[in-house]
Amino acid sequence: MRALTAMAAAVTLLMLWGVKGSVSVAQAPTVWTPVAGLPLEDPAQVRPDASGTVSVSLTAAPKMINVSGAALNARPWATNAPGPTSLDGPTIHVRPGGTIKVTFVNGLGAGIPTNIHYHGLHVSPTGIADNIFRTFDNGKTYRSVVHVTDDQATGTYWYHVHMHGLSEGQVMGGLSGLLVIDGLAGKLPRAWRGVRQRQLALRDVQTSGNSIVAQSDIVLPGPSTRLVNALYQPTFTMHAKRYELWRLANIGADVFYKLVFRNRARPQIHARFAVIAEDGEPVWRVAKYGTLLIPPGKRFDVLVAAPDAGTYDLVSLKYAQRYVFSQGPPATLDPKPLPVEVVNGTRVPVDQTLATAHVLPSSRTVPSAPLPKALVPRDDLSRQHVSAAHKRTFRFQYTPANENFAALINGTRFEPTEMPLAAPVRGTLEEWTLINQTTDDHPFHIHVNGFQVISVNGKRYRATGYQDIVDIPAQTLVDGKLVDGKVVIRVVFKRFTGWFVFHCHILQHEDAGMMATIQVRKSVHDPIEPPPEYRHGGGGLMDEMDDG
Predict the structure, then answer these.
(1) pLDDT over 70 for what percent of the chain?
(2) Strand locations in 268-343, DSSP E?
(3) Residues with Cβ within 8 Å of residue 182, at least 6 apart in sequence
């Protein structure tokens, strides 16, 4: 796997195609300069047929495409969705009980492998379903078939490549998109069901000249460029006091966002985000927030209305300066997530405008009905007993400064061939303590099963529902000593058995080894083993269709 990263670093992206036709090397500008202020548009949409099956064709290949009005070398998916190729994949829609069928062509070249993950779905992690241990070799075509359960939570999810050692560059290059389990609006009170919906996919890119940097070991001297639906600071129109349902999703590689939607002329006036679903899970208590922290992989479905007319900006606050990867070698990790501008040769944190809304006057609040208080019944795991045998501790760490850098969990750097770090039995409730022993925050994510946050840094957490991403706070300095960050979660391993992973969702950390395998077993008598793809010599469940 480590060789794969070096191989990817040697690959130069090919300039093949633009959204308005062929683009030659001579025609391509030497520096990507995105155009600000273009109209905000949703990504392309792919919807299910009458049987509930959504069929999607995804071809991953390097291309020169139009990204916010300027040509950029990237690694986007070409798809069967209507419309031009975009840096974002199409939004895949499916209903509970439906099926997702993906035909995936790996055209990345240079022998580069990849695969696919359906982030947040409670689906099978084995075979040709949501199996991140598969390897999609270059030049070949693969099938992925995911059967969505009848009780799958309705909300916003996403899909992305998940090839260990290569995920950061491939996601940053464009290999991710939104996935919506339809039906969330139907859980709202009747007066709210016709509310306008918008998809806001947040993505970070680092560029060199006219190319996205797709190699994990190359770092630029400036910050990432932040895009919304693959557009730079797009604009849209809404009406004051008229609520909209926004699907906010961080489908990027590394960057945190702390969002506020505020009046440009009077920044003290801002809208409040009423969260109706978190990480795809409808909430048992609707809470309103002035700001939302959105780490990589995180999603919020929110109801939002501008309180008055004027120009409003969706802004990522400079609070994100905490996430600067200060520990570990700066040559590898700094400064990707930091929104900065250079003043007298020094990088200074700044707020960043992501999108702008022109808010027109409106005489009344629409709808006039009060905000809903809940979307689903409360199902609180904090009130249940957990035995000592079902409690685990996982420590998120870096290697010492005098060693080659790696990101670790419980002192171990991830290798897909190794034994699972946890092997719970299906149906059990477990309590996990997540300890952060670094000076960087780490957004924790587990595949297949959502969880409930119980406490953060020793303080009881008032959960509004389940989630699949939680930020583990960095170490803090208390009386001259570093105190570890700590989060306690509870998770029930429901119907699916098999092998999957949990990890930090800063993809550079994931690629550096901050990931571990979990095996959910049918009974305590089942053996604990590495994933079958590696036990059987690799590729045992790849389901290759075409040698290409």
Answers:
(1) 85
(2) 273-278, 281-289, 292-294, 299-304, 310-316, 340-343
(3) 93, 94, 95, 154
Tell me: do 106 and 218 sit in the same domain: no
228 has pLDDT over 80: yes
- Cα–Cα distance measured from residue 142 to residue 431, given in angstroms and rounded to the nearest whole number: 37
Are 164 and 313 contained in the same domain?
no
* Residue, of 61 and 403, whose pLDDT is higher: 61
pLDDT band at 346 (very low <50, low <70, confident <90, very high): low
Query: Do 490 and 344 fall within a single domain?
Result: no
CATH code at 449? 2.60.40.420
Cβ contact 113:11 at 8 Å? no
* pLDDT tens column, 311-325: 999 999 875 444 444
Q: Which domain holds residue 470?
A: 381-546
Question: Could you give the CA distance from residue 175 to residue 63 in angstroms, rounded to a whole number?
Answer: 12
Closest-CA residue to 92 (of 121, 56, 116):
56
For residue 457, tell me if it sits in a domain.
yes
Domains in the chain, number: 3
Region 498-524: what's the mean pLDDT? 96
Residue with tokens 């031009």: 84
